[in-house]
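Give me the fold.
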Amino acid sequence: MSAETVTTRTYGPRRRQKPSSEKRQVLDLLKDVGLALSSMLGRCCEVVIHDTSDLEHSIVWIEGDVTGRDVGGVMSDRGLENLRKGEVHPLFNYTTYTDTGKTLKSCSIWLRDSEGEIYGAFCINLDVTPIAQLQDFVRDLAPDSSRADVGETHAQTLHDLLDTMIAECEYRIGASAEEMTKDERVEMVRILDERGAFQVRNSVSYVAGRAGVTRKTIYNDLREVSESRGDAVDQ
């Protein structure tokens, strides 16, 4: 079984298992690395370790306060999307923006066991807002300036994360969740699914409540989306 097959498991909660001695050794080493980085770089640095067996409360260790999250917080929407799509290669030096206006330079590395299966992630977020502000000032003075932005939401709770995702869907579709037609709602479900929202426990119930429909309706929408891709839906 390939690592990609394992990491694209969808729609159901993952049961957190007791880490093996191999994983504990890796996690202990990464905590030391995280403490070293945070100590060297100071308050502008945040290091996070995720456990993918419980995506709703994936943060099992965090040092620093760049994104305002704590242990027990949810994985970012970008992390969920990459996990859902099987895009589990390391990502280095990408730029994201927090809801509070901070500019971050980030790195994410997925953790694999000896069999190649994903069990966590090691992430570094560096607050480069002052540098970015200076760059923006210099860029404004130069002609034909441009910048590629990458969106990512660092929410503490599942509901906050889903609210942001649903709001983006409402903006793209042009209707509020509770006022969407069936086709519009299916499109919202498709977008949320592609972004990894339904990998997290209780997400179906929350989306159903926001849309004013039953959990069964959302599962039917997921089945319709899944059948169009040739996938299978776990309920």
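The helical segments are 3-7, 21-41, 77-85, 129-141, 158-173, 182-194, 203-211, 215-229.
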